Amino acid sequence: MRSKGWVKDNAFNLNEILEYYKKIYQFQHCLAFMKIYGRLKLEKGKKACIMRFLFEKLPENNDFDPENEGYHAINEPSFLKRCLMTIPVILISMFIIGLMLKIRLGADYHLSMIDSFQDFVILLALVPIHEMLHVIVFPDKISSRDIFIGTYRGAIYATYLWDIKKERFLLGFNIADHCLTVIPVLFLMISNINYPLLSKIAIMNMVLSSLDVLSFYGILTKIPANAKIQNKDSRSYWRF
């Protein structure tokens, strides 16, 4: 009888032990689910982030070490020299656009960019449109904290912290110039109708695109095809 009671008591204890481990197992599953949910929520939060804005500074990327990561620096002028080099680009571009439209539109066309306060407002509105056209080429579009729009030494820029394929990089330089200068000029040439506002937008954007034109030429000629490009401060680096 004693042995039966011992078995009965221990069977009861065994059931308690099994129940105890069952609860632990369920608790561990609950913790695992909470971790996965938290991770998914964090990832969703990251994607929900948007680009950042800076004033009179370039973004810092201390995690990017070009030399140790096998990147090659390209021989390019300083940021200040590039800004000075935009002056002849602007003058030549305005002369070519003005000459093309003058020949096509005749006496009805007069080259001008800003004649009134309204034109100045249009220029201010054109700046964010121009920069956003650059941004839509970057990975993740505007939903990334690694994209920056800012000002630096009087210039306005849009940049991405990580590497981009050369072809996509060049498209980023071209897209604003094509959408807001080349296409409007072609439309004016084909339509043979003088739209003063459209011609002013084309010229304004050409001024905004002058630094893009210089950068496009430098990247096109100094970096091989299929390379990946990454910026640090005002310098560009590449690797395969």
Features:
single chain, 240 residues, alpha+beta, 6 helices, elongated
Strand order of the largest sheet: 2-7-6-5
- Report the strand count: 7
Please give the share of residues in helix: 55-70%
Radius of gyration equals: 30 Å
What is the makeup of the main sheet?
A: 4 strands, antiparallel
Structural class: alpha+beta
Assembly type of the shown chains?
Answer: single chain
Indicate the overall shape: elongated
As for the number of domains, it is: 2
Q: What is the end-to-end distance?
A: 82 Å
State mean pLDDT (0 to 100 scale): 80
Task: List strands and helices in order, with pairings.
Layout: H1 2-48, E1 52-54, E2 72-73, H2 79-105, H3 117-135, E3 147-152, E4 155-160, E5 164-165, H4 166-191, H5 196-208, H6 210-222, E6 228-232, E7 235-239
Helix pairs in contact: 2-6, 3-4, 3-5, 4-5, 4-6
Short description, anyone?
By secondary structure, this protein is of the alpha+beta class. The protein has 2 domains: 1-48; 52-239, no CATH class. The chain has 6 helices and 7 strands; from the N terminus they run αββααβββαααββ.
Report on the structure:
This protein is an alpha+beta fold and 240 residues long. The chain has two domains: 48 residues; 188 residues, no CATH class. Helix content is 60%, strand content 12%. A four-stranded antiparallel sheet has the order 2-7-6-5. Strand 3 and strand 4 form a beta hairpin. Helix 2 packs across helix 6, helix 3 packs across helix 5 and helix 4 packs across helix 6.
